[in-house]
């Protein structure tokens, strides 16, 4: 059984013939109508050599003869060639509505590329409910966010490698120079090269079963025998946050049963708890509420967007800043469980050194050495 592959062309005009063009079928139809390869070539506005060679290649690919090649006689299709044309006509007729709908969908999608007022911004980011809400809000306004969720470390690495225009990650407020966040992100972010943009202020905590039947009140409860924890993968911002909180509580990963158990997103962690595969997992309140779970607040954090300084003046980034500064976005942010618009500084370009002040101690050392 030979497989079918679909392709499409971008053109200023639509063809009035087949809904899906296929060069082989065009050649077979021309040969049958014209009675010779030469006349078929002229009708297709192709060279004789091209048509003859293409038909031979197709015969080899399909393992069947397509044309009766009797010298001095009118060229005609073999039975197999006729059946191919018949099958194609049947498929085109039967699938015409679906094909037309698909073509319309593709044309509408490509219309964005030809709309000078529309913008597409590629964003690799740590999983976040507010980003999904922002994507829904901006799309009707002509700003299309092409978001790919991944760990914070991988997102910033993708930005630095040129695979996206913007990255999203999150930290506690004012993380210190010896914090886990500093050790994780210091080498990835450079003052003068990157620009930080305020996005959201959100709450993270332990997602637990509805009504919290185990009475979990904090990290220390994760040390209980038999209590099952579900973690995020190494390199994710939430994993960085957990390690930060464990250090502050003088706890070790080995204290937690399930520390090595990993899920790819806040939603996946919430589902693990909801399905009773785990008793607790660190995540955002919005994911817990969506699954009908209980939530034990642990930390307030800032969700940052970051781009290269050179990209800040681009139309895509400027359109994003405008959206983030709008009152509509503040209303959306306030409506999400666990999010605050008051402290988010949404759409503001922030000082990297002031917001993530783990570089400042180097400046002090240099100043002291000079004296």
* CATH fold descriptor of the largest domain: D-Maltodextrin-Binding Protein, domain 2
Give start-end ranges of low-pLDDT stretches.
Answer: 361-371
Distance between the termini: 81 Å
Structural class category: alpha/beta
Biggest sheet details: 10 strands, mixed
| Radius of gyration over C-alpha positions, nearest whole angstrom | 30 Å
Based on CA inertia axes, which overall geometry fits? elongated
* Secondary structure tally: strands: 12
What does this 3D model show about the protein?
The model is unreliable at 361-371 (pLDDT under 50). 42% of the residues lie in helices and 19% in strands. The chain folds into 2 domains: 23-111, Arc Repressor Mutant, subunit A; 119-370, 3-Layer(aba) Sandwich (D-Maltodextrin-Binding Protein, domain 2). Strands 3, 4, 5, 6, 7, 8, 9, 10, 11 and 12 form a 10-stranded mixed sheet that branches. A two-stranded antiparallel ribbon has the order 1-2. It is of the alpha/beta class. α5 links the parallel β3 (119-125) and β4 (143-149). It is built from 14 helices and 12 strands.
């Amino acid at each position: 059984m030979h497989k079918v592959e679909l392709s499409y062309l971008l053109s200023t005009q639509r063809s009035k013939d087949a809904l899906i063009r296929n060069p082989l079928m065009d050649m077979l139809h021309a040969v049958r109508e014209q009675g010779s390869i030469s006349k078929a070539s002229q009708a297709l506005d192709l060279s004789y050599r091209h048509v003859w060679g293409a038909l031979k290649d197709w015969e080899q690919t399909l393992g069947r003869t397509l044309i009766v090649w009797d010298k001095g006689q009118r060229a005609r299709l073999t039975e197999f060639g006729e059946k191919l044309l018949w099958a194609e006509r049947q498929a085109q007729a039967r699938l015409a509505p679906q094909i037309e709908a698909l073509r319309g969908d593709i044309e509408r999608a490509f219309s964005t590329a030809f709309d000078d007022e529309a913008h597409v911004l590629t964003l690799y980011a740590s999983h976040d409910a507010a980003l999904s809400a922002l994507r829904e809000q901006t799309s009707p306004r002509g700003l299309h966010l092409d978001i790919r969720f991944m760990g914070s470390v991988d997102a910033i690495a993708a930005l630095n490698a040129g695979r996206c225009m913007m990255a999203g990650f999150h930290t506690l407020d004012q993380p210190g120079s010896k914090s886990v966040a500093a050790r994780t992100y210091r080498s990835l972010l450079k003052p003068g090269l990157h620009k930080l943009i305020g996005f959201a202020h959100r709450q993270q905590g332990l997602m637990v079963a509805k009504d919290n039947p185990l009475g979990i009140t904090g990290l220390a409860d994760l040390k209980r025998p038999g209590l099952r924890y579900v973690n995020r993968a190494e390199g994710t911002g939430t994993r960085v946050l957990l390690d930060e909180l464990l250090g502050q509580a003088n706890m070790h990963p080995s204290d937690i049963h399930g520390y090595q158990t990993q899920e790819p997103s806040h939603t996946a962690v919430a589902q693990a708890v909801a399905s009773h595969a785990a008793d607790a997992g660190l995540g955002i309140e919005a994911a817990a509420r969506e699954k009908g779970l209980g939530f034990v607040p642990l930390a307030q954090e800032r969700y940052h967007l970051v781009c290269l300084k050179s990209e800040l003046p681009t139309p895509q980034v400027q359109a994003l800043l405008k959206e983030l500064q709008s009152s509509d976005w503040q209303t959306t942010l306030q409506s999400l469980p666990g999010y605050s618009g008051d402290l988010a500084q949404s759409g503001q370009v922030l000082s990297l050194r002031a917001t993530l002040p783990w570089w400042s101690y180097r400046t002090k050392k240099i100043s002291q050495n000079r004296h």
